[in-house]
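Worked example

This section walks through a single chain of length 232. The input is the sequence exactly as stored; nothing has been trimmed or padded.
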Amino acid sequence: MADLNTQTLAGHPVENKTFYDRELLERLLPQLVYFQYGQKRSAPRKEGDTINFRRFNSLPPALTPLTEGVTPDGRALDISAITATVKQYGDYVTISDLIDLMGIDPILTETVGLLGEQAGLTLDLIVRDIVASGTNVYYVGGHVDRSEITADDVLTGGTLRQIRRIMARNNVKPVSGAGAYIGFIHPDAIHDIQSDAGHGNWLEVTKYTTPERAFNGEVGKLYGIRLIETTL
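Given that input, the structure is written out below as tokens.
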């Protein structure tokens, strides 16, 4: 008589079965925050793929008194043009009718979700890269190039106060509807800000008078800059 306590299915692989949990695991997704701040324009059909934006630059103050009977020299208008080109982005996933029919997971439903996530991430990264390509840059520690930054160059409340001063001195207006400047910040940098002993003006988003009006991803405000957390 066989000893039931020592019997295994090792010699009978056909009897071994893997149990598949029908509930799929959630994916760890980044917070998408950049696209909500990008300016959006609609391009009409059959008008080409290029959009031209124009800006009339301000005239300098006229500080010289006029002389009676003398026509002043006058001044030419100064107009800046910014050109944008419409581009298409897309992707697809190949699924056979057999895997759709025989697969144990809801393939089509999950694929639609994956493509939606991909589309959102793509748009956010495109906007981020355009913003990051700007030439008006302030580096922590007074450096003039990103390659000079080291682990000792830590973002502090004092740094944000300096950045706000630079913005205000150059007549940069707070973001419309925000009542403040907007800063995108990595969780590591948020940690540094909160660890800084000189951040007495730091205000957590949960302590806002109207926290329900906070932006997507907003974690707090310091020196007139509302900070949006993102890992991208």
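What to look for: The radius of gyration is 29 Å.
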